[in-house]
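User: Continuing from earlier, I have the next pair ready.

Assistant: Great, send them over.

User: Here they are, in order.

Assistant: Folding the first of the pair now:
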Amino acid sequence: MAAGRELLLLLLSTAALAGIASASGAFLSDTVFQGSAGSTGRSLLQAKKSCPVNFEFQNYTIITSKCKGPKFPADKCCSSFLEFACPFKDYLNDDSSDCASTMFSYINLYGKYPPGLFASECKGDKNGLPCANVSVKAVNAANGSYRAQSSLLALVTLICGLVTLLFH
């Protein structure tokens, strides 16, 4: 019986730790595309900090419902990309984080887009892609999902702690 309790405790602790581990201007900088278009240089040798936004659970239908192949129309693909990405512009423009590469990994996973599609199709100016026309509603919706997920993680951690105290 004690071995069963220890195994349950180990599994709950592992789940809690795994959950914890996963847990600037009006433009998207052109450097956002470096992760998807392939970049050369020293960035591979420099460690990047983990992105505070969890892109795994974002709603990608904004892009996947409008940007469809085989032609991938630039106007629809770029407008939907901006609608999705602009709420995260401060995180994506941070070159010291892995936010841009993480976001593009999930965009390509859910949309099965050819590599570099958005980098080659979406053109901005010297500052990058404009985010001025993106609604505030999109920002609130994008951040709301992350807040709800953080609350759920805190609840799971609390329950694991209580179960640990109960069986210890």
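And the other member of the pair:
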Amino acid sequence: MATAETVTLSEPHAPKPASVKAFESILPSLKHELVKLRRNHDKHEPEYFKLVSKLSDHELTSITLPDDLELVRVGSSAYGLHLFGKLRIPAAEGAYIHVRVFVAAEEGTDGKAEENRVAKLHSINTEETVKENGDHVFKAIFGKEDPLEWFEI
């Protein structure tokens, strides 16, 4: 299994055409999962999406590419490429989501050529941290300055 210890991510950088193409291919599933994720969290812990709670589903998913893909990090493993992206939510100033995409060889190919690779949405980052006083902080919406780091969720 790929982990932060076994995969070295590149430094954050502007997206290159191959990254944009990978994100474009998963954009419909990303938008669907983002709405679903917010609805599920709103039932139990609305703090995850508090920063965008006033947005409609349409506004939340108004992400367009390549405009809203601001940063990417890429790591390689024996299984394929692990692509992390910081996407801006245009309807909410300073609001971003962190997304993980897995890119692997299309079945029956070696995946060396870009057209022989298939991208799949792996996950949208949701973070739960516990403060020293025991309080829990829930976060699915990040700011511009929040680092784009490896996440398992």
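Worth noting for the second one:
The chain has a mean pLDDT of 93. The first strand starts at residue 69 and ends at 77.
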